[in-house]
Design goal:
Oligomer: heterodimer
Number of helices of chain B: 8
Shape of chain B: globular
Strand content of chain A: 15-25%
Order of helices and strands of chain B: HEHHHHHHH
Helix content of chain B: 25-40%
CATH topology of chain A: FAD/NAD(P)-binding domain
Largest sheet of chain A: 8 strands, mixed
Distance between the termini of chain A: 37 Å
Structural class of chain A: alpha/beta
Number of strands of chain A: 24
Number of domains of chain A: 1
């Protein structure tokens, strides 16, 4: 039986980007805030120490900063007719763990979604007619517009110190930026990163093809910066240990560099780490949360009562906590009814690997967000009519790292070992670059999340089951993008190129993307969404759910910029809610 | 003690079987934090962080360096077989030392004695399906220590039966290559063990050992890094960004520096 703790105003589940921002902003209003985090405390000097951080085996291969599958994983299958089996070892995606969450190990590519992305269903049908929508889709508008979200994107970018070049300030196009982006109020807080030789070739080639390249917006920042919370960051040194690693240099925006130093000073805030929330507790009416139950380091169970529950874990685990707590009706693909677990989406990867006769790309001089990008083929920035698919991709030429266990490319057809392999590895390392397409994935009836009937976590609770595969629409889109990438790669002067297509079912082994979205989506209709436009549960009005679990489908961008913007957007709504509790949208 | 802070592959004796993370043991980190920050709220044994960042002077979590010499997991015969396999996978040739000569067998031996060797961090609860989909990844209950012990024994038995009583190490290079190629494809059938699983385990660990930081016992003298021109953990390449398309000429550095740093 759980023992009951003294009441708090706000309990936050998970202390990553969204949890730390919420905690800081709400503690500043004088509220008593407690954050409960199942992983350890992590900080730069101790955990991302320069003497220990650049260790590829420990972090990138053995996954030291990630959630241990032993503690929690998911089961997976490609379609509902199959039997799901546990993801015993992370591969396709890598969920974080501990204070800072995915904000510790992310690459830092910090995008705004395009105005069309937020009303993609309406927009596509208006422009092309119903016929363009893919079979079995459940594509939805977000219930919010880019214009509404713009001030909150701005806020997150200035907290994170993002380095970039605006392409559209208040409607005026800016040379050197992304001409397709929605209008922004002002320039990025810091200038773009220094680009390397491959980006130089890409930018020239893409410009020559009539495309519009620009430096990718980056949370690995270019110059020293102090954010509005008074937290200081240092310039990125292009060390090449970003994604899968914490940053030793205070150069990558993270809760550690941008929020926690200010947050811990708030006297009404406390964090409890290595405590796992097992359930959101509901009052007898089922419409009000009374707080959460958690298990501490010693296995003791505690009840933390609170007026407001903010669910700020990783997207997938937000959905599982709702399912385990009985908040909202679980989605059933057979009937199409229910909402929790609905519209799980992911991303596609495709592109072209470019082998040069003679180049010194120095791939080790890199950063998670270093790169040149173009948006000519993203969202609906191009005419989809002739192609018959929905969605798009951001196309980039980038080096995130040259770490040799996982990055020692050889041309296709090279033996996998022996002296010939060794020779090819030596000759190729400096001479290869990549033009890649990170593509959207739409939402479909049979791509969803629910609780697994067989497999359990160490506390005996069901694991979540992921049913997902790439649909024809996504394959068509990704393969069309691969050809566009190949055109650019050839135009860069590659001697040979190798086109990387998407023709196989989703496989859990090779790393693809930790951009898992949906399952607790926002929207305008409680029959097809879990949250209203303020990220407030339709069913339990004092529960708000942050994160990419709110995305109704995925876009061709990294999610964190939009996650950050939605957090600040929801924060304003929560402040209103606190003055007058109840549903912020009437049904 | 099984904690979040156990480190991958070091020379330590393997820990006892894993308990639940809620085992009641205090981690080193808990002790550090508790000195300053353990706050008992109504009797909760939770660690609480409030009002100040929980930082202690010199707090860090380094990996203990592997000290080469002898084997902690492999028998002498197993070590000889692994030496022979990795020497074919990445041979010593005119381009420089290969896997055997850069310590990869020691690397694998020490990895197998640590949490990696027991899949301690992975989800290993049953049931284990005998018919997983190709897309469902790792589904075997065999942990790396078992894969090596059983797999190497099966390889040895196969060699003795197929090559008139010879061991793998007694085969000539061409015979070894042909056999390894067959194991890679799964064409070679061992009794009671998947030849492909053994090949996959050794292959992955060989790449790791050849390219990982030398602190783990492989990549001796940074042979793997020198082969491709990876400068290691210099952690500041702003000079490279300033000079695009130019060769990088400084020698590599590992987490323990590099040998020349010890000279006067």
């Amino acid at each position: 039986m759980a023992r009951r703790l003294p009441h708090k105003d706000v309990v936050i589940v998970g202390l990553g980007w969204t949890g730390s921002i919420m905690a800081l902003e709400l503690a500043r209003t004088g509220l008593e805030v407690v954050a409960i985090e199942r992983g350890p405390w992590r900080d730069t000097a101790s955990d991302f120490n320069i003497g220990t951080a650049p260790d590829e085996l420990r972090y990138a291969v053995r996954h030291d900063v990630f959630l241990r599958p032993k503690q929690e994983t998911l089961t997976m299958r490609n379609n509902p007719s199959q039997t799901a089996l546990p993801i015993r070892k992370w591969g396709s995606f890598l969920p974080g763990n501990g204070v800072g969450g995915a904000g510790v190990h992310w690459n830092g590519q910090t995008w705004r979604f395009l105005p069309d992305d937020f009303r993609i269903r309406t927009h596509m049908i208006e422009r092309y007619g119903e016929g363009i929508m893919p079979e079995g889709h459940q594509i939805q508008d977000w219930g919010i517009s880019y214009e509404e979200l713009e001030p909150y994107y701005d806020k997150f970018e200035y907290v994170a110190g993002i380095s970039g070049k605006a392409g559209n300030i208040k409607g005026a196009k800016q040379a050197g930026g992304n001409p397709f982006e929605g209008a922004r109020e002002r320039e990025y807080p810091t200038p773009p990163m220094t680009q390397g030789y491959a980006q130089e070739l890409f930018t020239k080639a893409a410009g020559g093809l009539g495309l519009h390249p620009f430096p990718r917006p980056s949370a690995n920042i270019s110059i020293a910066y102090t954010n509005p919370y008074g937290c200081s960051m240092a310039p990125c040194t292009y060390c090449g240990f970003c994604e899968r690693f914490g940053c030793s240099n205070y150069s990558k925006a993270s809760p550690q560099t941008c929020v926690l130093p200010a947050l811990v000073r708030e006297p009404t805030f406390e964090a409890r780490t290595e405590c796992e929330v097992t359930k959101i507790n509901l009052a007898k009416d089922g419409k009000t949360a009374t707080g959460v139950t958690y298990v501490d380091l010693n296995g003791e169970e505690w009840e933390q009562p609170a007026d407001v529950v903010l669910v700020c874990a990783y997207a997938l685990f937000n959905v599982r906590l709702l399912l385990l707590s009985g908040i909202g009706k679980p989605y059933d693909p057979a009937t199409g009814e229910g909402t929790v677990g609905r519209n799980y989406a992911y991303q596609t990867g495709s592109g072209s690997t470019a082998y040069f006769e003679d180049a010194k790309f120095n791939p080790f001089a890199a950063a998670g967000s270093l790169g040149a990008a173009l948006d000519d083929y993203n969202s609906d920035n191009f005419d989809h009519g002739p192609h018959g698919f929905v969605g798009g991709a951001s196309i980039t030429c980038a080096y995130t790292n040259g770490r040799p266990i996982q990055y020692h490319p050889v041309p296709r057809g090279t033996p996998t070992w022996g002296s010939q392999w060794k020779k090819a590895v030596k000759e190729t390392y400096q001479r290869v670059t990549n033009v890649g397409a990170q593509g959207s994935v739409m939402s479909y009836r049979n791509n969803y999340l629910d609780l697994d009937p067989t497999y359990k976590d160490p506390l005996g609770r069901p694991l979540m089951r992921m049913t997902f595969d790439f649909q024809d629409n996504e394959k068509k889109m990704a393969n069309w993008m691969a050809d566009r990438c190949d055109e650019i790669a050839k135009s860069m002067g590659a001697k040979t190129t190798q086109v990387n297509r998407l023709n196989t079912p989703w496989n859990v082994v090779p790393y693809q993307s930790t951009h898992n979205t949906g399952g607790a989506i926002m929207g305008a209709d409680p029959r097809t969404s879990v949250l209203n436009r303020y990220l407030q549960s339709w069913d339990v009005s004092n529960v708000f759910v942050m994160g990419a679990s709110a995305f109704p489908q995925n876009a061709g961008y990294n999610p964190t910029g939009t996650v950050g913007a939605l957090t600040y957007w929801s924060l304003d709504a929560i402040k209103k809610y606190l003055k007058s509790p109840g549903p912020l949208v009437q049904t | 003690m099984r904690t979040d802070r156990d480190l991958p592959g070091t020379g330590r004796i393997p820990p006892p079987p894993a308990k639940s993370r809620h085992s009641g043991h205090l981690t080193r980190r808990s002790l550090l934090a508790s000195a300053a920050l353990l706050i008992m709220t109504s009797g909760v044994s939770a660690r609480v962080v409030t009002k100040v960042l929980p930082w202690q002077p010199n707090e860090a979590y380094p990996v203990p360096p592997v000290i080469p010499g002898g084997y902690l997991f492999f028998t002498p015969a197993e070590a000889a077989t692994v030496d022979a396999i990795v020497d074919r996978l990445i041979p010593t040739d005119e381009l420089g030392p290969g896997a055997k000569d850069s310590g990869v067998t020691t690397f694998i031996d020490r990895q197998l004695t640590g949490p990696f060797g027991g899949h301690d961090w992975l989800y290993m609860q049953g049931p284990f399906s005998s018919t997983p989909l190709p897309t469902q990844g790792l589904q075997s209950p065999l942990v790396p220590r078992q894969q090596y012990r059983l797999g190497l024994a099966a390889l040895e038995a196969y060699c003795k039966a197929t090559f008139s009583g010879k061991s793998f190490v007694q085969l000539n290079g061409d015979e070894q290559d042909k056999l390894l190629g067959g194991m890679e494809k799964g064409d070679i059938k061992f009794e009671n063990f998947s030849s492909r699983m053994l090949f996959g385990a050794v292959y992955a660990n060989t790449m790791e050992g050849f390219f990982a930081d030398p602190i783990y016992g492989g990549n001796r003298d940074m042979a793997g890094w020198k082969l491709i021109g990876f400068p290691g953990v210099r952690y500041d390449f702003r000079d490279v960004m300033a000079k695009p398309n130019q060769a990088y000429t400084l020698p590599p550095v590992g987490m323990q520096g590099r040998p020349a740093w010890g000279e006067n």
